[in-house]
Amino acid sequence: MKMKKTRIRIRLLKAFSAVLFFSFLLTGIIFNLAIRLFAVEGEINFSAYQVMYAETSRVIGRVGIISIILVSVMFLVATIVTYFLANSLTRPIEKLGQFAQGIGHGDFTPNEFQFREVELEELNKALNKSVKQLSEYDSEQKAFFQNASHELRTPLMSIKCYTEGISFGLMEPQAACETILQETDNLADLVTDLLYISKIDNITTAYTTAEADLIEIIRDSAARQAAQAEKRQLRFTFQFSEAVLYYECIGELLLRAVDNLLSNAIRYAVSEITLSCQRRTDHIEICVADDGAGIAPEALPRVFERFYKGVDGNHGIGLSIVKSIVAQHGGQITAENGGKGGAVFTITLPI
């Protein structure tokens, strides 16, 4: 890195010095030629010509010496000026280079140095913005793995305990196996959610958007969970502003978001779940509402936090996945209690 910086200085020094040197040299040559032409111009006799030629030669010699000295002095000045100019150009680039190296080594401390050059200051602000995003991402990932480890440990310990109970004859095998199967299902669901949210938050993952029918997505989600709803004797009510509503989106992700909201509603509903999709002036609203007990006031601000579990919650990941998906589409999601009771989750997508 240092060698490249030195080369930049040398190249600037050579370029400026060469231009100035040849400029002054060319000026001196033209000046000398002009004096020679002026000296021999006109009609003069031979003796006068010899006298004038001798005098002119002395003048030309002196002018030549003065020109050489002047060119040398200006070359020296140009070299010094170019050196300081090269330093002034490369010094801020060095600072940005060191800042970028620190980011590469995991140092996310913002660069507080301000540049006088507009272009370099814009680049500095862009790097600081990237540092802030990387720092937040790094903190979220560390918290994510800590919480994930804790959540994975719980079902694994339960499975281990019941397996040991069967092995030592301390537990009735049938009941213990049912518990192990249940914990295994919970563990599988948790791993699936963890992998999914890791995929969504991966900053290098690219998704392709396409037009999808939001009404069809909602109906598909309801059909996939119809058996679970029927098991709890719940009915679905649909409220759509139109039969077909196309939207540029990532259909796979929006389907998962509706799945998670509907699964959450099935867990808390008493008899009915309402799914609606309405086109507004500048946005589209997708609502999933249940007729359960609603969300506790102290839990409302935290329902979308990762690993935050409310009453009878599973892993505390489902709603955070919904929030991440909606954010990827430039939208927002809110949670509130309905006027007649029950929780209402509203996804707002910009048009």
Write a concise keyword list for the protein shown above.
351 residues, alpha+beta, Helix Hairpins, Heat Shock Protein 90, two-stranded antiparallel sheet, 7 strands, 13% strand
Q: Could you explain how this protein is built, in words?
A:
The protein folds into 3 domains: 2-107; 139-201, Signal transduction histidine kinase, dimerisation/phosphotransfer (DHp) domain (Helix Hairpins, Orthogonal Bundle), CATH 1.10.287; 210-350, Histidine kinase-like ATPase, C-terminal domain (Heat Shock Protein 90), CATH 3.30.565. The chain is of the alpha+beta class and 351 residues long. It is elongated, with a radius of gyration of 39 Å. The longest helix has 59 residues, at 46-104. The strands form 2 sheets. It has a 5-stranded mixed beta sheet. A two-stranded antiparallel sheet has the order 1-3. It is 64% helix and 13% strand. The chain has 8 helices and 7 strands.
